[in-house]
Write a structure and sequence with these properties.
Layout: E1 5-11, H1 17-24, E2 34-40, H2 43-50, E3 58-62, H3 73-81, E4 86-90
Parallel strand pairs: 1-2, 3-4
Helix pairs in contact: 2-3
Length: 105
């Protein structure tokens, strides 16, 4: 596709990038060719803002199913705020390979 992959981590406090990769359990091999962006602030707002760039598509994990729409609180808010396409992946999928079969637009 020729797309650039950005891994975005948002937290209330800034963390060193090394700490972010450790917390997320990301090895250097997994991060090859990936740009890691670390932002501070409200996670839903910052993720939605990050996705405002033209040609951007957000892909994120939903960490719970207790919020609005049966999604986690942050995922629900990003769904409402984002102006770009958003793909939500169930957290249970983990790192296992998968293929998108249906998409609700």
């Amino acid at each position: 596709i020729g797309a650039t992959i950005h891994l975005l981590h948002v937290s209330e406090q800034a963390l060193p990038l090394r700490e972010v990769t450790r917390l997320l359990g990301l090895s250097p091999e997994l991060m090859e060719g990936v740009i890691l962006d670390e932002l501070t602030g409200d996670p839903a707002e910052r993720i939605a803002q990050f996705g405002c760039e033209p040609g951007t598509m957000l892909v994120m994990a939903s960490h719970s199913n207790h919020g609005k729409y049966g999604l986690g609180e942050v995922s629900s808010r990003v769904l409402e705020l984002a102006s770009c396409p958003l793909v939500l992946v169930r957290r249970e999928r983990g790192m296992a390979p998968w293929r998108l079969q249906r998409m609700l637009l």
